[in-house]
Amino acid sequence: MAISGSPLRSAFSYHYEGELSIGQRVVVDFAGRNVVGYITSISSKPQFKTKPISRPLEKQVYLTPADITLAKWTVENYLAPIGKVFDLFFPPGKLLKSSSFVIPINSELPFSEPLKMSEALKLMGREQILKLKSQRKLKILHSYEKKLPSKRKVKLLKLSLSIKALEDLNLTTIQKKIIDYLLSVEKATPKEVMEALALKSRSPIETLLRRGTIELEEEEEDRSDSSWTIDAIEDLTSEQESVREAIIKDFKGVHYIFGLTGSGKTEVYFKIMERVLNRGKSVSYMVPEVSLTPQLMARIRGAFPGREVRVYHSYMSPAKRQRIWLDAVNDEIDILVGTRSALWIPIQNTGLIIVDEEHDSSFYQQTPPHYDAVEVAIKKGELYGIPVVLGSATPRVERYFRAKAGEFKLHSLLNRPVGQLPDLEIRDLRNSKDYIIPSETLGEIEKTVKLGHQVFVFVHRKGFSNYVVCANCGNILKCPNCDISLTYHKHDSVLKCHYCGYTTPPPSKCERCGSAALSARGFGTERVEHELQKRFPELSIMRMDRETISNPDQYEKALRKIESKDANIIVGTKMIAKGLDFPNIGLVVVIDADRIINLPNYDSAETAFQIISQISGRSGRGVHGKAIIQTFEPEHRVIKTALENDYMGFFETEVEIRKILKYPPFSTFIEIVVEKEKEEQCEKEAWELFNCIQENIKAAEVLEPVVPAVKKLFGKYRMKIHLKLFDREELEKVLKLLQKNPAGVDILVNSNGGSF
Ligand SMILES: Nc1ncnc2c1ncn2[C@@H]1O[C@H](COP(=O)(O)OP(=O)(O)OP(=O)(O)O)[C@@H](O)[C@H]1O
Ligand SMILES: [Zn+2]
């Protein structure tokens, strides 16, 4: 039995008189509390005493033996707590009971009224129902036992008269504008109308409402079922077509599409999906972050009109996640687009798993249970016999290595169907007076905007300045909970910790020496935006970072603003580096390439290469494009290979270095974090653990405990032990050693880019 929510790494034994199945959820007493347990195996009565299972939580068994195997594999390979791994399969909260109905759409069916699912099953059997459903001859609907938590309502304006009747009205210019606007968008809140038309008062809206020309309608606020669509392309290029063919011909195992930015990977996925969908199976489409989805969703809606497409990610309300989860396990979704959490939904009829931007660090879960969703996807494909397609322009070194070694079937896309790869240029900051935006860069920006094109400006960090320092004594203001310098945010005039969210007004004096000579140094997105706006007051500059965009709706709005060319310059963090496809981007500027290269991780070179290539790749998709990379180290191998779009070159040197230093793929890299309230205790336990590991684990290189770059986080002191394991079999031994000392020890296996 795996205990839900438990940080423990082992399962427990319970007994029960009645019938239960593996994978079923039950209620048990654990340490005096009623908690949910997952049955992971069933055996005859053991010798030792066991507690009874209170009752089954639900009759239905959602997890199959393959799911259980997948969970156990994750536990073993990531040394993750078993209960938390099982929790990943389910949405938060207690599942709602539902009854299903089959609704006929087509008149050829043997029934014309809606039927209860149980009756329909008797009449035709499951296979037949699913077949008719995929032919869109019937629909399945659920009614839930109790009302789902109601969503907030919003009032939307819409036209109440036909277009013909509108023509006969006598309208003022403003009223006409309002009506034209509503004709184009169908529905909008009064506020949106006022903003769009720059109305000073609401009275013209009120007048139209009183006359009955327009009306207010209540609607649920959640408008994520957005209507934004992007038309599908007609035909694949011959390069794309041959990749598609090769994959379809050998449609099993893992395929890897190495495709330069803008080479049309997404369109190839779509064509492969089409085939799977036409055979009545569903597709899981995995993306690194929810932020990638609005534009992708618009493209999917354009390419697959009429298909059931849903998004699933952890930003959603629990109620919404639950509804989508139930639809998914009931086989009612054709295409499920989601982040790593979507991978775990126990869908039975998946026919294809796509993992786009495979290299992205968001696929690794940084909070327990840690796991790498790409590896889990590959394993899931293997266990369920589902083909898996991975894709990226900048593969993760380890995976490209495996692809070359024949573990995955490798395909390449090296040309852009539209536009060209951008010209890349280095701006050597050593010769420049201004290290943020030198005048040559400003000139390029101006030139691009004059041509009517848009500019992306990438900055590694958000905020105005990175740190505030006392010019008198050198004291740097830090977060009291974390050992991190506070970032100055000019807009709200606060100092903020980007790790724990702590904020404080800027002090007037240095707390150490009392001097008033505090100054903000370094820079982030807000500062860059500020500088650009000062230089180009007439241009529309939009900032995109976690500060200005905190939910998917805001993100979609921002993307639409880029699409409609309402923003000339877009300043952003990693958020703008990923997967976006806008034809009018004529210039991309990477403000601070060095900052990414010099992060303290073994794979920082890889991360830097990825970010620089991905962000440059946003340029030149329609118009002729350019990318400027600003650096103090123009000779750095990452800069040089990125500049030449030379992934292969980068890969080969990187592999050489990793081989010498014995980093992955030449070892399993394990990071053990010891966290304690007291600094001395943290240090003591870290050394004890180190000695113990060194004594017991032979096929490994164990590095002495170090104080990490972030020495204190969320109020706890930290030490890290790094381990290069040369024999994967030894993982279990490491686990056993840790089990002796589980409290305050966290462990990450082959995590990517996330260590700090
Ligand atoms: N065969 C084609 N004919 C015409 N246009 C195409 C074709 N294939 C792709 N495109 C267009 O080229 C652009 C880039 O394609 P897409 O977004 O699929 O590339 P990608 O490889 O997924 O890019 P990235 O990795 O940078 O996200 C899109 O606007 C797409 O519509
Ligand atoms: Zn903090």
TrEMBL record:
What's a Pfam family in this record? DEAD
Glycosyltransferase as UniProt keyword = no
Name the protein family: Belongs to the helicase family. PriA subfamily.
InterPro entries recorded for this chain? DEAD/DEAH_box_helicase_dom (IPR011545), Helicase_ATP-bd (IPR014001), Helicase_C-like (IPR001650), P-loop_NTPase (IPR027417), PriA (IPR005259), PriA_3primeBD (IPR041222), PriA_3primeBD_sf (IPR042115), PriA_C (IPR041236)
EC main class here is: isomerase
**Task of the protein:** Initiates the restart of stalled replication forks, which reloads the replicative helicase on sites other than the origin of replication. Recognizes and binds to abandoned replication forks and remodels them to uncover a helicase loading site. Promotes assembly of the primosome at these replication forks.
Annotated binding of Zn(2+) 1, by residue: C470, C473, C510, C513
Which residue ranges does the record assign to the Helicase C-terminal domain? 481-661
Record's catalysed reaction(s): Couples ATP hydrolysis with the unwinding of duplex DNA by translocating in the 3'-5' direction; ATP + H2O = ADP + phosphate + H(+)
Aminoacyl-tRNA synthetase among keywords: no
Give UniProt keywords alphabetically.
ATP-binding, DNA replication, DNA-binding, Helicase, Hydrolase, Isomerase, Metal-binding, Nucleotide-binding, Primosome, Zinc
User: Superkingdom, according to UniProt?
Assistant: Bacteria
| Name recorded for this polypeptide | Replication restart protein PriA
* Binding residues annotated for Zn(2+) 2, in chain numbering: C479, C482, C497, C500
- A single GO molecular function, which one? zinc ion binding
Q: How is the cofactor bound?
A: Binds 2 zinc ions per subunit.
Cofactor list: Zn(2+)
GO biological process: what's one of them?
double-strand break repair
- Any one cellular component term from GO for this entry? primosome complex
Which part of the chain is the Helicase ATP-binding domain?
A: 246-413
EC nos: 5.6.2.4
The record's note on quaternary structure and interaction partners says: Component of the replication restart primosome.
